[in-house]
Amino acid sequence: MKYKIPLFDLNFGTAEANNVLKTIKSKWISMGPKALEFERRFANLLHVKHSICLTNCTAALHLAFDVLEIKEDDEVICPSLSFVATVNAIRYVNATPVFCDITSSDDLNLDPRKINSLISAKTRAIIVMHFAGFPCDMDAIMKIARANNLKVIEDASHAPLSEYKGKKLGTIGDVGCFSFFSNKNISTGEGGMIVTNNDDVATDVRLKRSHGMTTMSYQRATGHSTTYNVKALGYNYRMDDLRASIGIVQLGKLKKDLVRRAKVRNWYLKELEKLEHYIFIPFKQNQEFVSNYVMPIVLKKSQKKSRDEVRTVMHKMGIQTSIHYPCIHRFSIYQSFATGSNLKLTEYISDNEITLPMYSGLSKHTISVIVNSLYKAIVK
Ligand SMILES: *Cc1c(COP(=O)(O)O)cnc(C)c1O
User: Fold this and answer.
1) What is the C-alpha to C-alpha distance for residues 241 and 261, in angstroms, rounded to an integer?
2) pLDDT, tens digit, for every residue of 248-266?
């Protein structure tokens, strides 16, 4: 079925196509000048020292745990209300995920007040995920991390250019990871980025993204080097220049796109007032500049219709919705890591959240069509 109003709409235009064509004509199509330019522009935009582009964010998360030397039997405190890649990456280095609940129906991010009781002698790191681009309480999380000598990884897949007290998300912890998958704020088809202010971490990420080799093809082709050594067990997590050239154009559009999304969210907030007895709107009081990657609402307990019934009615009216997220600890491969954990709020959101369409091209009129359909689906 083709939806009348989709969840997401790609903002590609001729500029993306033209930049790819230029790269094709240049005959240097992977990890060359375009990848370097994309990295430089990303770093400048985020005011961060190092930006390293990769095949996708899952690779970024894996490398983050790898270079921070998180190993077998180490414990990592993590959210369950996230995409599964956040936690899969912990398992790639054979470490153990320790699930932490969210703060409230209003704040869907990791609750710092619940972290302390989860810290053991084996805890080495905390991974946070900034839901829809709304910032976690990074002051509290960094304070806990410093007091306990823990690394902090930010899964900032939802959060390019989003801010917390004047800092860009992804640049506050030890390592920040971004995704450029098709439906993210910046799209390159597949793609990812690691950012860090730590020189040693950056050197290790650059080494391990390309087989642990000390020089890259581009350096050799440009005469800067004639051979290479392999000094670490690396991977092939390189981004190609075709995708980087799309990323460069997408970066140029980002700020304007996010300003427009903020407007779309405000129209939603106004229209959704008529549903205040039936739903919560997470992060309603947020004042920071954020990416608004998705538009979540949560059905209240007093509300009689089930989330799935509401979604079915919406779909019949041609409106696509989604769920963020089916929580990770209930997936069969993760159930054994959550025995005894209290994840009640996470489970409530997972069972009652509905993600409404969000993209910069949505008009005020379309928002009112979506909200009126939601009203009918819930109230009638
Ligand atoms: C999209 C996403 C990922 C995975 O990113 P890929 O680039 O597809 O590997 C990880 N974490 C979160 C929170 C995401 O939304």
Assistant:
1) 28
2) 999 999 999 999 999 999 9
136 lines ligand 1 (CB under 6 A): no
Residue located via tokens 């909200």: 371
User: Shortest CA distance to 257 belongs to which of 6, 9, 2, 1?
Assistant: 9
3-state secondary structure 128-151: EECHHHCCCCHHHHHHHHHHCCCE
Residue 1 has pLDDT above 70, yes or no: no
Q: Which residue has the tokens 């993210």?
A: 184
Q: What is the pLDDT of residues 8-20, one digit of tens each?
A: 999 999 999 999 9
129 in contact with ligand 1, CB cutoff 6 A? yes
Token pair of 217, please?
């093809």
Say whether pLDDT at 216 is over 80.
no
Residue with structure tokens 């007093």?
302
**Residue of 55, 92, 157, 358 best suited for mutating to test ligand 1, as the one with most atoms within 8 Å of CB:** 157
